[in-house]
Write a structure and sequence with these properties.
Length: 158
Amino acid sequence: MQRVFIYGRFIAIALVLLQCCSAASAQDEKTDLSGNKQISQSSFTGAGVGDSSTTAAKPGGADGLGNPLLGGERHPLYRLRPSDVVEISFTVAPEFNQTLTIQPDGYVMLKDAGMVQVQGLTLEEFTAAVQTAYTGYLHNPQAAVALREFEQWCYSGE
């Protein structure tokens, strides 16, 4: 009698494991109406790896509208204005590091690179402009731009 109970218990555990494995494999495969099996990529890391309709957010895409399900409209990225103070630091060439105040006409004077108009640019756009300006002086310039001081103004959504 005890052997029958042990065998019955073993068979019950085997059936439960078999059912779990078949449910897991069925979740990874999808069959369309034509009978073709498609392997789901939802088990991979990331949202929508491969040919999925779900895509990750666009980097640097805070301008414009956000996802309405996650809070609606986002505030736009900060745009540089006259009297803002920015700090530029170069990874490989610290002799070009500088702290600049944006002039009333919207320009800054970059050391050895000349005047660059920055009014209305985001920090990312200004970083690209600095790297472009120093391309003639440095091979593949890598610069980081930080906003150090800015005019305290009330955001009006414009």
